[in-house]
Amino acid sequence: MPVLIGDTEYFPDVGPVPYEGPDSDTPLAFKHYDADRVVAGRRMEDHFRFAVAYWHAFRQTGGDPFGPGTISFPWDRAATAEQRARDRMDAAFEFITKLGVPYYCFHDLDLVDEGDTRAETRARLRDIVAYAKEKQEASGARLLWGTANLFSHPRYMNGAATNPDADVVAFAASQLKDAIDATIALGGRGYVFWGGREGYTTLLHTDTKRETEHLARFLTMARDYGRANGFEGVFLIEPKPMEPTKHQYDYDAATVIGFLERHGLADDFKLNLETNHATLAGHAMEHEMQVAADAGMLGSLDANRGDPHNGWDTDQFPTDLTETVRMMLVLLRAGGLQGGGINFDAKVRRTSTDLLDRFHAHIGGMDTFARALVIADDLLRNSDLEAMRAARYASFDAGHGAAFEAGDLTLEALAEIGDRLGEPAQTSGRQERYENLILQHIR
Ligand code: XLS
Ligand code: NI
Ligand code: NI
Predict the structure, then answer these.
(1) Is residue 145 part of a domain?
(2) Ligand 1 test: best mutation among 109, 147, 302, 343, most atoms within 8 Å of CB?
């Protein structure tokens, strides 16, 4: 991928990040992520389709509820919103091409600052989308997914699609339409809905039935508009149980799958699962991925991790190898992601104030996934894991187990077999043996 540098070089201390292999001591080099290496029949780059998140990498300056940002971005200094947007995009493509990441993701308002009117914001967005198109063509980097920020502005304090005020829903529709247009114009592989404030803070004043029906209506309109205007990518819902609201309607994978099926959206929508959101829902990430995979809806991942000692979305970079191995086992068994990729929805810590820290963070995240993929593939091919798992269900491969699975038995017939066989023999689940297998193959 050719490195793209604009009028200013924003990361002069970094060149294209090379792959140097596991023995390398170079901090700014990949030890495990080797884009062209083939694992389980596919190049690493194609397994992952890694993406940089515009909001964290180029907008998030480190503010938290107790203090302002700690980092001042050199690309945010121009006098006009239009120039700032261009400078930011130059910085983004320099970063993306030096890192060799094939994709990026954005919210409409990561690209441009919101104007005073819809028309002004729209004009800014169109201008920057044209610029992004040039940059994409020059570099080969592409848009993984686009989305609309329908949660930050105070007008959305009671939600966007689920707002009790129809005027707010209409305003959100205007923003949504432009964000879908931008995604189509840039050839985005997906379009994401994260329901930032689509939920409630108290049931005392909330008509949940009406609000969730409005949400379904909004998504249906988006689907119809996108499909009518040439969007062939995947629509994605990103579950999160809470934060900023007390309860979000897209609570977790199982909730969202039920919702999509109930509202006739299951053919066009899949899930974008985020590790830290799984944690907040009280699930392991591999649980969320497995639930989605079982429904044929494992679309895309937002890679990060939470802090086990903090109860919010800390969005740290993913560095937990054993967790990522368990995730990669689900991914490989499912045959990969459907339509999406792996977006680093992760931010450096507030105290990581050098621009270089962003490179270290992404390199660590990509290496974690690469290493985990190789280990998971090794486990599936060169260990007893799959055979042991299959053997647990062997009694359903023949005899009354197979007849039961096929639906060939009535309850009376199955009960009669149960009466005849009597007390079943005890079979160990052998969980520790499975856990040891994972440890054995981490090398
Ligand atoms: C916030 C979400 C958000 C989505 C995109 O918790 O993860 O960043 O990924 O709107
Ligand atoms: Ni996310
Ligand atoms: Ni999140």
Answers:
(1) yes
(2) 302
